[in-house]
């Protein structure tokens, strides 16, 4: 009896020990499985993007890009059809100060762009990816385009004019005055198939950095403190000395210049583009520039109906107020693709700035995040299916599943 009881107690003790050992082994196995799962999850974690610290690396020494690119953000399903899951953003050049005005030359197979601060124009060569100096003095050129005959058209801040470079190398002044007053600082320009040239003329180039300020008493130098003649021997000899009210202009093939939007209708006009069928004109109203004085725009994109051979524009309306996640974004340049979507360069906080893409109804469908606000952009490449983006000192590119609507 005693022996049997003792045997039962020993057996129970052994079973309890085995049970504890099994539980320990089970816990150990579970812990190892959890750690393995954590390691697997870590290996699948998306790479750092521009919202992380440290920020995403760029340039030739950066690690390989991940696909799909975490900084190409799909908001609406329709945007997924416009971008490829294998395409990634690349920085192709970073030697500028503030680059602007990208335009694709179909004949030359190069991308033209400007540095408004250093007053130079560059070109990105398609075949080699090399960036070369194109014009060592561009008179602080901002926006540029190519017309339907392949001629370069540029807005020169310093000389306050719009020029066209002819095929023989000569330069033709498209516009430098309106109502016997010099222009302010032509900003962006587009070409129409009918031979007309459309451009915006705000006061953003009335600054020391990107052109020259007004003489004393002008809107950009009201109290005369800016030494507007300092640093450039041509200041005062050419170009305007006082800005005039903001205008958006159309120059017809004969050279006649017409106002299509006044300052009251759209203050601080900036980027502009046509819809693919030329039935609409889109114009951005920007805010007051730092140190420029003057008045405010509404930081929005506006749409107008365009009727061939008929001015003024009709049916003015707000396309988008450019507010995103409670933040007022800063629109700058924009282009339309063949489906009528608008690709708009925007400034704003890190993680939000870059490119916003809107459908023709003005709904935001996608974003491209970059570490700097985008001043302007265009579609290029032989098939016009590469998006080139000017952002601060750098030029970026991304292949897309659409094509640009215009010639440049």
UniProtKB/TrEMBL annotation:
Keywords: Hydrolase
SUPFAM superfamilies (alphabetical): Calcium-dependent phosphotriesterase
Ranges where the SMP-30/Gluconolactonase/LRE-like region domain occurs: 100-390
PROSITE patterns, A to Z: TAT
GO molecular function terms noted in the UniProt entry: hydrolase activity
Cross-referenced InterPro entries: 6-blade_b-propeller_TolB-like, SGL, SMP-30/CGR1_Lactonase, TAT_signal
Gene3D superfamilies: TolB, C-terminal domain (2.120.10.30)
Keyword Nucleus: no
Region of interest (Disordered), ranges: 36-65
Keyword flag Hydrolase: yes
Pfam assignment, any one: SGL
UniProt protein name: Gluconolactonase
